[in-house]
Design brief:
InterPro entries: G_TrmE (IPR031168), GTP-bd (IPR006073), GTP-bd_TrmE_N (IPR018948), GTPase_MnmE (IPR004520), MnmE_dom2 (IPR027368), MnmE_helical (IPR025867), P-loop_NTPase (IPR027417), Small_GTP-bd (IPR005225). The chain is of the alpha/beta class. Helix content is about 50%, strand content about 15%. Strands 3-4-5-2-1-6 form a six-stranded mixed beta sheet. Strands 8-9-7-10-11-12 form a six-stranded mixed beta sheet, with helices on both faces. Bound molecules: guanosine-5'-triphosphate. Guanosine-5'-triphosphate binds next to helix 10.
């Protein structure tokens, strides 16, 4: 059978017009045919297009990788696998006497299965710059030769990763982990996707699945061998044991889902609204944190008329700060009133509210602020009170104001004294903000958190937990084994969709890989 496969492979290479020597010994040791070997060879620029850079990388994957190597380098001998070699790249199919040099490049051939995709792959490290990359890409494209069955085409978004998945190099959770790793903008985001990328989520999902399959098998046994109408006491015991096991598993999955739901904040960023009376220093605080002049600062009250969002990486955490118009109850100015309404709305939609107070005014002077903080929209929101302009006050007065503010908000928040002018207290404020962020995103002491893709979160909610809840309901309402077994299957299929290893693969592939960039 194996020899047959070898013969077929070698035939395949010949009909593919691959005129380089098929190394039979290597194929024998390989004992592996990628499941994607019948697909066209794909190529793409793996580094950003239309940008000047020192190096650009072109990735090629598929059975014609070696052929492309020979054609571009005009060399007859196979290259040493997995070794970087300095080679001249020439326009293929041109008169051999004319040079037609395209570039000098480092090239590496990765024979399958020891490559990212599991197929034979070739990587070209060429000089950066649009014209060089374009000429080499064009040369590869021209090697497509339908009549001789050499199928080469430009890759689609995520196609290299898709091939890696199809050749079982990764499951879907790992593939999505790679994408999230590339997309990570901050240190905390990078940290949080490692659980997917490193495969620890995959192990967890597989463990859940095997527990559920085990439980489902016991229910199937009751259905297949039990009485049609009723279940006897032995089977009832089995059913109840399955129920206990499912309950424990559901608790674990609930915990996991809660952690990933909360950790989602790490990806989207913590939305933080700066709220306060006019002229208290909200814009100054934003500029101090951003170390930049984002918002206009002036001593004219009501300078900020609308909300201004600013995304910041604060010590590795993504925070979306929103500077809002100063809130006061007694303005007649129509535009200012609209600004105030928007500020209140922004505050309501934020994850955390920072109330900025001017210490030189002795504390909050407008009751509208206190009314707002105690309103329905704000009452469950984490609060942070920032007492600004402490450079203008002596420490005794500052302590009195802090005590008063703490009483006003009845222990709902700490009060942090700062000065945007001198920078005093700003470090403390950043530490306080990050502590709130970690609490909300359920980041533990070792800075661990788990994030999974939106797709996985939805399946966990809509399929896995839904199936488990329905199972428990079927057990509770009438000890209905058949219904309960179907519900467990639903949850099991959900986990299969997550990892892509068991069911509904085709349906989910499009969703997963379409979000990748070309060349990945
Ligand atoms: N002494 C001192 N002045 C400050 C401090 N922070 C801000 N100011 C001054 O306070 C004034 C108002 O500052 P802004 O940052 O514009 O205040 P705001 O709350 O955004 O004002 P609105 O846009 O009207 O809502 C400016 O003149 C700032 O220079 C501080 O820590 N100490």
């Amino acid at each position: 059978m194996f020899l047959k496969q070898l013969t077929f492979m070698s035939h395949f290479r010949q009909v593919n017009g691959l005129n380089f020597r098929v190394n039979l010994i290597r194929s024998f040791h390989k004992q592996f045919t990628p499941s994607t070997f019948h697909l066209p060879t794909i190529y793409a620029l793996a580094t950003p297009p239309v940008q000047k850079s020192a190096i650009a990388v072109i990735r090629i994957s598929g059975s014609a990788s070696g052929y492309i190597y020979h054609k571009l380098t005009r060399r007859k001998r196979d290259p040493t696998p997995r070794m970087m070699l300095l080679r001249n790249l020439y326009k293929p199919n041109e008169n051999i006497l004319t040079q037609n040099l395209l570039d000098q490049a480092l090239v590496t051939l990765f024979p399958g299965p020891h490559s990212f995709t599991g197929e034979d792959s070739l990587e070209l490290y060429i000089h950066g710059g649009t014209a060089v990359a374009q000429s080499v890409l064009e040369a590869i494209g021209k090697l497509n030769d339908r009549t001789n069955n050499i199928n080469i085409r430009y890759a689609e978004a995520g196609e290299f990763s898709k091939r890696a998945f199809q050749n079982q190099k990764f499951d879907l959770t790992e593939v999505e982990g790679i994408k999230d790793l590339i997309d990570a903008e901050t240190e905390s985001q990078r940290n949080s996707v490692l659980s997917s990328f490193s495969g620890s989520n995959k192990k967890l999902f597989e463990n859940w699945r095997s527990q559920l399959v085990n439980n489902e098998a016991q229910l199937t046994a009751i259905i297949d061998f039990g009485d049609d109408n009723d279940i006897d006491s032995d089977n009832y015991k089995i059913f109840s044991n399955v129920e206990s096991s499912v309950r424990i598993l559901k608790r674990d999955i609930d915990d996991f889902v809660k952690r990933v739901d909360r950790a989602h904040l790490l990806q989207s960023g913590l939305k933080l609204a700066l709220i306060g009376e006019p002229n208290v220093g909200k814009s100054s605080l934003l500029n101090t944190l951003a170390k930049d002049d984002v918002s206009i600062v002036s001593n004219i009250p009501g300078t900020t008329r609308d909300t201004i969002d600013r995304v910041m990486d604060l010590e590795g955490y993504k925070i979306v700060f929103c500077d809002t118009a100063g809130i006061r109850g007694n303005t007649e100015d129509e535009i200012e009133q609209i600004g105030i309404e928007r500020a209140m709305l922004k505050g309501g939609r934020s994850d955390v509210c920072v109330i900025v107070v001017d210490s030189s005014k002795g504390g909050i002077t407008d009751p509208k602020i206190i009314e707002l903080v105690n309103s329905e929209m704000f009452k469950d929101k984490p609060l942070l009170i920032v007492l600004n302009k402490i450079d203008l006050m002596d420490s005794e007065k500052i302590n009195i104001i802090m005590d008063h503010l703490q009483n006003t908000f009845k222990g709902r928040s700490v009060v942090l004294p700062v000065s945007c002018n001198t920078g005093e207290g700003i470090e403390n404020l950043i530490t306080g903000l990050i502590r709130i962020f970690k609490d909300l995103a359920l980041v533990d002491e070792q800075n661990n958190s788990i994030t999974v893709s939106q797709r996985i979160r939805e399946i966990l909610h809509n399929d896995v937990l839904y199936g488990l809840d329905s199972f428990l309901m079927a057990k509770k309402l009438g000890n209905d084994v058949v219904m309960a077994s179907e519900d467990l299957k639903y949850a099991i299929d959900g986990i299969g969709k997550i990892t892509g290893s068991h069911v509904g693969v085709e349906e989910v592939l499009g969703v997963v890989f379409s979000t990748f960039c070309v060349g990945k």
